[in-house]
Design brief:
Blueprint (H helix, E strand, L loop, with lengths): L1 H9 L2 H18 L2 H5 L4 H19 L4 H16 L4 H17 L4 H4 L3 H11 L1 H4 L1
Helix pairs in contact: 1-4, 4-6, 5-6
């Protein structure tokens, strides 16, 4: 992941745009590590996932808002499919992206309020017993 991160950091924006769909597919597969391989070793899972997220952030930082928006919604849709572990990975990714994008993340955060609220309502122990 560190080699890919370094390569992405040195790519020109037009090169990145050419390879963005392949990189997106790769990252969707790599981000699925927690859902596919987590057998109780949460420390290793967190470490691997952190490296993938760090590499993805390098790509995100080179994208414009117009090219990041479809990627964000693809990741958002990916997180809602199949496994609950994907939600945790997506929320961790959002935290890292928000930290790097700062105020620019507000453009996307509005789409997360309702799902975050719904999840908190579902897991509220005072309401679920």
């Amino acid at each position: 992941m560190s080699i890919l991160k370094e390569h992405i950091a040195h790519m020109e924006k037009d090169q990145l745009n050419v390879h963005q769909s392949e990189l997106t597919s790769f990252f969707l597969t790599a981000l699925d590590f927690r859902a596919q391989h987590c057998q109780g070793d949460l420390e290793k899972t967190s470490q691997v996932e952190g490296c993938v997220i760090d590499c993805l952030i390098a790509m995100v930082m080179k994208l414009s808002e117009v090219t990041f928006r479809p990627l964000f919604f693809k990741l958002f849709d990916w997180s809602k499919a199949d496994r609950k572990e994907r939600l945790l990975t997506f929320y961790r990714l959002c935290d890292c992206v928000a930290e790097r994008l700062k105020g620019l993340f507000v453009l996307f955060a509005g789409n997360l309020v309702k799902p975050f609220s719904d999840l908190l309502q579902q897991t509220n122990s005072s309401k679920t017993g």
